[in-house]
Design goal:
CATH superfamily of the largest domain in chain B: Succinyl-CoA synthetase domains
Strand order of the largest sheet of chain B: 3-4-2-1-5-6-7
Number of strands of chain B: 14
Mean pLDDT of chain A: 94
Structural class of chain A: alpha+beta
Oligomer: heterodimer
Shape of chain B: globular
CATH architecture of the largest domain in chain B: 3-Layer(aba) Sandwich
Number of helices of chain B: 9
CATH architecture of the largest domain in chain A: 3-Layer(aba) Sandwich
Low-confidence stretches of chain B: none
CATH topology of the largest domain in chain A: Rossmann fold
Helix content of chain A: 25-40%
CATH superfamily of the largest domain in chain A: Succinyl-CoA synthetase domains
Largest sheet of chain B: 7 strands, mixed
Radius of gyration of chain A: 26 Å
CATH topology of the largest domain in chain B: Rossmann fold
Low-confidence stretches of chain A: none
Order of helices and strands of chain B: EHEEEHEHEHEEEEHEHEHEHEH
Radius of gyration of chain B: 18 Å
Number of helices of chain A: 13
Shape of chain A: elongated
CATH class of the largest domain in chain B: Alpha Beta
Helix content of chain B: 25-40%
Distance between the termini of chain A: 40 Å
Number of strands of chain A: 18
Chain lengths: 376, 289
């Protein structure tokens, strides 16, 4: 789960990581009031869940009252990569002497938590990792003991020549690690970490992603979810315990298991069709879950054919069949349904669906081909 | 022969009294697995499917000489269940439970270091050594004893591919799902090391997906060290970037971890990659026929 910069900064603040004076605003009037409090110049930053907001014009420095009004109005009415900007962060303008990068993730290959530092700030770290890996200094935490102070000092001394700044940075690194572990983060970045003209260290921008699997033990983080900016269908799916990702095609896919769901989309594409979505109904799927899945799928008007690909293990084909039958009645599905139901209780499923007007198939290859054929 | 699991494996089921635990205990016994004990704290003294239930894994191991454990408890308790199994001294832990926070796997990895114990999963569908034993939730009827080893990050996609392999007339030695999480106990390479020593395995299929770089690392390992033919399938060619595709580990970050990148590395290392599940099975068939 992602949170906005202003939310990440609030968390930083709680952990004692220094941030600029700033406030989140939702209207032009609020921006004006906050800018008067902070003094000019001030920075107005769009709060949206996409990268590249600076390039898109979503970050502006206002030097006069007139500019505050103008930029606030502009940014609060813009869309960045299709997402409307509903909130801005208004921040004091900090005089920057130098910029660096500090980040932390769980390294999948090493199976350890790793802190990364880079002397260039404001960079895309994956880009640096690819082009100039030697510019990134990495230090692994001990998974059972934690991130020891001397390792934090190593980070500081890598980034800064003067020991005062280096040790101040070490404190920030320790706090960032503590936060990362305590809150089940999957990524935390201070990018850039700046030294101001007066020699202070400040987290000028903040990014924190959270491990979805850890959210159950952090209701306060879950409460930060920006439901307004989330895709409605994906939100409905999450609430019904389904995995759904919308794509741009017209063949709606309903599958049990994430790997098979991806393989089904790929197969549709392989035979010349366009999948409308990724949808995993999960393992022990009840008829209700299947109904919810179809409900979500049909919100997408592009869907012209529905392709069920079920390989029953713990998923029982008769449960899926009952779900299809109920959904057909209640949701008045007009689109043709191609169904490949194999495995546990497949005969029962056939019995349940024999009058339902579905197009049955034995293999996923054939199912994908039939679904594509129906569009012609 | 086979790897990890065979007809002599003595299994304890953690969470045996739960809905999934009891259902799959029955299925595993039906397949021929020696399920010697179950554990649910507070339910010691009961029996499930004729299997004695104990209050702790330690007690179960002492009384039944169980040497492998399978975990069917909810995510919230699964971390504790894994540590309990490690401390009880079992050699193999298969964690079917999914939804464990990643940081717990970081800690478990460190805790396992230096101990004679292997974790498979979490979020694993289990392990089948065809004709001998199965641990987990894979449907037993699709397997046939044979020479192909299968390692997969997925569940149902594994069944799909195994089913195709079986329908070509070939069979499997051992087939295991290593789990779709970002950090897992046993990776592709760990399994290949075991398959290398297994005389009954003549070819291996690896079923990967988007996210991370395990498949790429595996391909480079295969090129350098692995002598048997390896085939691959990668799911998620049509997956968009920065969206989690069901599995916690199935996410393209920016431009890294794409299916195209993985297929390229696999092929460069001499691994034939099937475009579809059916095609992978056919590639194996052509090789072994």
């Amino acid at each position: 789960m992602k949170v906005h910069e202003y939310q990440a900064k609030n968390i930083f603040n709680k952990y004692g990581i220094p941030i600029p004076k700033e406030k989140m605003c939702v209207s032009v009037d609020e921006v004006i009031a906050v800018s008067e409090e902070l003094g000019l110049p001030c920075v107005i930053k769009a709060q949206v869940h996409v990268g590249g907001r600076g390039k898109a014009g979503g970050i502006k420095i206002a030097k006069t009252e007139q500019e505050v009004k103008e930029y606030a109005r502009q940014i609060l009415s813009m869309e960045i990569k299709g997402l409307p900007v509903r909130k801005v962060l208004v921040s004091e303008a900090v005089s920057i002497a130098s910029e660096a990068y500090l980040g932390i993730i769980n390294d999948r290959t090493a199976k350890k938590t790793v802190m990364m530092a880079c002397k260039e700030g404001g960079v895309e770290i994956e880009e640096v990792a690819r082009k100039k890996p030697e510019a990134i200094f990495k230090i692994y935490a001990d998974s059972l003991i934690g991130f020891l102070p001397h390792k934090a000092r190593q980070i500081g001394l890598f980034l800064y020549d003067d020991s005062k700044t280096a040790f101040a940075c070490a404190k920030i690194a320790e706090k960032l690690y503590k936060m990362f572990i305590e809150l089940d983060s999957s990524l935390a970045e201070i990018n850039p970490l700046v030294v101001t003209d007066s020699g202070e260290l400040i987290a000028l921008d903040a990014k924190i992603n959270f491990d979805d699997n850890g959210l159950y033990r952090h209701p306060d983080i879950e409460a930060m979810r920006d439901r307004e900016s989330e895709d409605k269908s994906e939100q409905m799916a999450r609430e019904s315990d389904l995995s759904y990702v919308k794509l741009n095609g017209n063949i709606g896919c309903v599958v049990n298991g994430a790997g098979l769901a991806m393989a089904t989309m790929d197969l549709v594409k392989h035979f010349g069709g366009e999948p409308a979505n990724f949808l995993d109904i999960g393992g022990s799927s009840s008829p209700q879950k299947v109904k919810n899945a179809l409900d979500i799928l049909l919100r997408d008007e592009n869907v012209k054919v529905i392709f069920f690909n079920i390989f029953g293990g713990i998923t029982r084909c008769d449960d899926v069949a009952n779900g299809i039958l109920e959904a057909k009645k209640e949701l008045k599905i007009k689109q043709p349904i191609v169904a490949r139901l194999t495995g546990t209780n497949e005969e029962k499923a056939m019995e349940i669906l024999k009058e339902a007007g579905l197009i049955f198939t034995q293999s996923m290859d054939d199912g994908a081909k039939k679904a594509i054929q129906l569009l012609k | 022969m086979s790897i990890l699991v065979n007809k002599d494996t003595r299994l304890v089921v953690q969470g045996i009294t739960g809905r999934d635990g009891s259902f799959h205990t029955r299925q595993m016994i039906k397949y021929g697995t020696r399920v010697v004990a179950g554990v649910t704290p507070g339910k010691g003294g009961m029996e499930v499917e004729g299997v004695p239930v104990f209050n702790s894994v330690n007690e179960a191991v002492k009384k039944t000489e169980a040497n492998a454990s399978v975990i069917f408890v909810p995510a919230k308790f699964a971390t504790g269940a894994i540590y309990e199994a490690i401390d009880a001294g079992v050699k193999l832990i298969v964690c079917i439970a999914e939804g464990l926070p990643t940081i717990e796997l970081v800690k478990i990895t460190a805790y396992l270091n230096g101990k004679d114990c292997r974790l498979v999963g979490p979020n694993s569908p289990g392990i089948v050594s065809a004709g001998e034993a199965k641990i987990g939730i894979l449907p037993g009827n699709i397997f046939k004893k044979g020479k192909v080893g299968v390692i997969s990050r997925s569940g149902t996609l594994t069944y799909e591919i195994v089913d195709h392999i079986t329908k070509t007339g070939l069979g499997q030695s051992t087939c295991l799902g290593i789990g779709g999480d970002p950090i897992i106990g046993t990776k592709f390479i760990d399994c290949l090391e075991l398959f290398a020593k297994d005389d009954d395995t003549e070819a291996v299929v690896i079923v990967g997906e988007i996210g991370g770089r395990d498949e790429q690392d595996t391909a480079e390992y295969v090129k350098k060290y692995f002598k048997k033919p390896v085939f691959g399938f990668i799911a998620g060619k049509t997956a968009p970037a920065d969206k989690r595709m069901g599995h916690a580990g199935a996410i393209i970050s920016g431009t890294s971890g794409t299916a195209a990148e993985k297929v390229k590395v696999l092929e460069a290392c001499g691994i034939k990659v099937g475009e579809t599940p059916a095609e992978v099975a056919q590639l194996v068939k052509n090789q072994l026929a």
